[in-house]
């Protein structure tokens, strides 16, 4: 019997419709988006402009939430209340209160809940995990990451974009709330979680808008006694850079990508005590060993956890580990850099 699935948010979400349709155990029964022109692309499915109506009338067993960030926690709660399992894009929550409510409901209703943090599923991340686990870097002492990307609107948003899409990125996406693409892989590689978050922000909110500073930096402490520095900024005159480093007692690694559109531009540099000095790792770093598309594997793993009854690859607590520390660092920055405790669910 197929798992009845629904997808909400049909910009990036249209990819999730296809990914779920590729999975033999799934049947996509419904899609939801307030834009009729998006719904018109799915003549064979039940289509809904209203999310709650979709939950009620289509009764999906699993929902993929690929909607604007601020909707993620309310829609996750509504979906789990209605009995559905939830796969949700990043940022999955905007506060510790939202995180707690989501975790408690997932446990109370015994629903699978997973952040769709896809960077961890990329080929380079799996390869780095093997290197770290082999002990090539010795003991990992700390980490850093930077994610900066010029996402300033190139032209004024249309009324429709202001209402339904894109605008939330400019007014309601504090850069550190979008921490999971760097923090997720780092915590996964170190098998660690953050215990405190301290934030500092740069620039004026007027440059970005709403609650959003152009440049935000977090200092995070971990359960394993490490520190992680994160810097994120999306409303800057600065082309895309995604980079991360692991500092070890016997070696270090630096990953850097300067071209958003070209995953092959990713470089992985390593230096070890045995072979000091930076050198590029000569591998096809982006392709997975199994040759599969990483997002398909993520979706398939999540579906498999529902069908088999096994825990999700990242359960509700781990999903919060990857995103909430950044959210709390942003809050910390607003209060002059006060150190915040990160709840460990
Ligand atoms: N993992 C990645 O690399 C990656 C890349 C891009 C986007 N994302 C994430 O994916 C999500 C969606 O991003 P996007 O670029 O498609 O955003 P977007 O703003 O371009 O599109 C959001 C879509 O959701 C729809 N929508 C708005 N309100 C809705 C509601 N109440 N119910 C259902 N649908 C609603 C909009 O009409 C629009 O079609 C975000 O969380 C974003 O952070 C992740």
Strand order of the largest sheet: 14-13-12-11-7-10-9-8-15
Q: Residue-averaged pLDDT, rounded?
A: 93
Instruction: Work out the number of β strands.
Output: 15
Global Rg: 20 Å
CATH architecture type of the largest domain: 2-Layer Sandwich
Number of domains: 2
CATH superfamily of the largest domain: Dihydrodipicolinate Reductase, domain 2
CATH class of the largest domain: Alpha Beta
- Amino-to-carboxy terminus distance: 33 Å
Number of helices: 12
Small molecules bound in the structure, each named once: nicotinamide-adenine-dinucleotide
The biggest sheet, with number of strands, parallel, antiparallel or mixed sense and barrel status, is: 9 strands, mixed
Topology pattern, helix = H, strand = E: EHEHEHEHEHEHEHHHEHEEEEEEHHE
Q: Roughly what percent helix?
A: 25-40%
Which residue ranges are poorly predicted, with pLDDT under 50 across at least 5 consecutive positions? none
Q: Shape from CA axes?
A: globular
Strand fraction equals: 15-25%
CATH topology of the largest domain: Dihydrodipicolinate Reductase, domain 2
**Structural class estimated from helices and strands:** alpha/beta
């Amino acid at each position: 019997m197929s798992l009845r699935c629904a997808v909400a948010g049909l910009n990036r979400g249209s990819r999730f419709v296809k990914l779920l349709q590729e999975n033999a155990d799934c049947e996509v029964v419904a899609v939801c988006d307030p834009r009729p022109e998006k719904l018109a692309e799915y003549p064979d499915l039940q289509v809904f402009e209203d999310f709650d109506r979709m939950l009620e009338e289509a009764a999906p067993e699993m929902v993929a939430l690929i909607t604007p960030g601020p909707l993620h926690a309310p829609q996750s709660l509504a979906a789990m209340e209605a009995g559905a399992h939830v796969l949700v894009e990043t940022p999955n929550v905007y506060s510790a209160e939202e995180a707690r409510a989501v975790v408690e409901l997932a446990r109370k209703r015994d629903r699978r809940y997973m952040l769709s943090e896809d960077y961890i599923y990329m080929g380079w991340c799996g390869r780095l995990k093997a290197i770290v686990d082999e002990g090539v870097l010795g003991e990992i002492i700390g980490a850093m990451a930077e994610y900066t990307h010029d996402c300033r609107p190139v032209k004024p948003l249309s009324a429709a974009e202001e209402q339904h899409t894109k605008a939330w990125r400019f007014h309601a996406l504090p850069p550190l709330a979008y921490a999971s693409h760097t923090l997720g892989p780092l915590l996964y590689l170190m098998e660690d979680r953050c215990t405190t978050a301290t934030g500092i922000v740069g620039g004026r909110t007027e440059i970005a808008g709403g609650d959003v500073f152009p440049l935000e930096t977090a200092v995070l402490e971990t359960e394993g006694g490490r520190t992680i520095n994160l810097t994120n900024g999306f409303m800057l005159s600065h082309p895309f850079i995604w980079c991360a480093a692991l500092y070890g007692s016997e070696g270090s690694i630096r990953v850097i990508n300067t071209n958003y559109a070209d995953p092959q531009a990713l470089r992985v540099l390593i230096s070890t005590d045995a072979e000091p000095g930076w050198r590029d790792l000569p591998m096809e770093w982006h392709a997975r060993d199994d040759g599969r598309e990483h997002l398909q594997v993520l979706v398939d793993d999540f579906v498999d956890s529902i069908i088999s009854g096994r825990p999700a690859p990242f359960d509700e607590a781990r999903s919060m580990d990857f995103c909430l520390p950044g959210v709390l660092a942003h809050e910390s920055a607003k209060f002059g850099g006060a150190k915040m405790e990160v709840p460990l669910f």
